[in-house]
Amino acid sequence: MLLTTISVLTFTLFGALYPLLTWTVRISQLNRGFHRFILGLSCIVGGVGVVFVFLISDTIPSNVRIGEVVWLISLLAVTGYYWNQESIKKWVITIPSIFGVMAFYRILSEIISGDLELFIISLLGGFILCGALFSMILGHWYLNVVSLPISLLKSTVKFLILIVSLRFIWDMGFIIMGEVRYNGLPISMTQFLQTFDGFFLIFALFFGTLLPLILGILTLKT
Asked: DSSP per residue over 39-108, as a string?
């Protein structure tokens, strides 16, 4: 049940946000195979998310499931329309993404809570995942297309650095001002980080935010 819930949230968010990464590049400089891959991957991952939504139908109300299906249909329609075209209009593929983000928020509200802070941090995490994969795929695309300008890859790396920086600032703010329950008692985050369990959180923060931020900056300088 827990794995299915995580899959629903992850796949829905990925399918909704991934097409938005096309705004970070001049898509006209890439062949149609690239936007086919982006939209096709979003449809596949989003479709898996919809399937998992119906696997936990006891938790998700029918109107929320319908919203998820409407989002997927709109994404499939846009993908089918642009499949054989040489270029795409970014604002058009943004429309299904908006539906997807709305569907994600409604699912998040039903499964966990409708807390705005949780929603925002989920979006940041989703953009980091999508940005990392988008940059990786774009980097490999240079092997398929001759004479692509390096500015395309730099723009996606800059976006990724921006999102990771926002997440790092958010994390630091929570560490300074946040509070958690540990062994049944409320303690500050700074105290928690001094415990054995807190060590693993420091480990995750280093490899999850700080190290990617450093590597991204170094990438721009190469």
From this structure: HHHHHHHHHHHHHHHHHTTTTS-HHHHHHHHHHHHHHHHHHHHHTT-S---HHHHHHHHHHHHHHHHHHH
